[in-house]
Amino acid sequence: MISDTTYPFRLPRLPYSYSALEPYIDRRTMFFHHDLYFDLLTPAGQKFPPELAEAFGGEDNWRQQMKAAALGLFGSGFVWLVRDESGALKILPLPNQDNPLSDGMQPILPLDVWEHAYYLKHQNLRSDYIDSWFQVIHWDGVRQRLQETAKP
């Protein structure tokens, strides 16, 4: 994960083509920004993790909470699915470059709401971008991070 990064850093290759997430995330955005968090995106559909369904009352509730947090974040930043110090799962909107590690929380899934993440395809329609982002989440990768961050 984040703490396992060593230098010199080499940009990891994507396990799919830059256009594989179309029509949800366009090829140009993938080409320019795939180093940010695209290992948690995939063109193949996967099942929503039961642990998240339990924590948030189902997939629809989780989506509504993530979207509300992303639309409510003024300016640029990320909305994070995190595990807090007690082991609880939370949605944490943070402005700019702030991240959950600074607050002692473990990042699981980031939703990038910096304009560069969606402007080429969606221009200023952040809501449309968020709806597209939901379609390409790599739930197997999220499950792995849920396991990695679970308290023993």
From TrEMBL:
GO molecular function: metal ion binding; superoxide dismutase activity
Manganese/iron superoxide dismutase N-terminal domain residues: 9-35
Binding-site list for Mn(2+): 34, 112, 116
Span of domain Manganese/iron superoxide dismutase C-terminal: 50-145
Enzyme class: oxidoreductase
Catalyzed chemical reaction(s): 2 superoxide + 2 H(+) = H2O2 + O2
Domain of life: Bacteria
Entry's family note: Belongs to the iron/manganese superoxide dismutase family.
Protein name: Superoxide dismutase
Originating organism: Candidatus Fusicatenibacter intestinigallinarum
